[in-house]
Hints:
The chain is an alpha/beta fold. It has 8 helices and 6 strands, in the order βββαααβααβαααβ. It is globular. It starts with a strand and ends with a strand.
Amino acid sequence: MNQAAVGFRVHSGWAALVAVSLDRGAPLILSRQRVQLVKTFSYKFRQPYHTAEKMRFEEAGKFVSAVRSDAESIAYRSLCAVQLELKKRAYRLDRCGLLLASGKTLPELKMILRSHALIHTADGVLFREVLRSASTRCGLRITCAKERELLEHCAQAFSLSPEDLLRRVTELGRPFGAPWSQDEKFATLAAWLALNGSHIHSISKS
């Protein structure tokens, strides 16, 4: 089987997913999806920490935990479906590229809910952690890279300038049509980096 990787660029409540393989060393797009990570795509669930900010503390913790639990189940089912579909096409999906924001460790819930800046950060972190967990459950080797450093890392790994990289991933998306925005382009680069084996920060199944 040919090896494949999936890349994620995460937003609150959803993520851009692009599956990539290599054909004679060049990236080949296998799948492009927008994965919804909440049962109901509304502000209440897409921004769980913002919602929790308006609740009593005991209720806030339960609400965030419930959103996380639902999102973990949805993410796992979605990733399993992609893995199965690619297997039918003779591709082994065994790697994942996940883009991070700051990468900073968050404090406890009570401290988060006292800071609007931390609330914004926590919403994004929750859904990234959900996809990390789903990828681990699916047996994928995970490569994490800070988004602001992605082009630099890819330029070094592939010996291409950032401008050439963006031009290349833009061309790769033309056959798929819209949407092929920065979300899909960056998810593609994350998957390509994971396939390349240039692990910025990697986590095996163990």
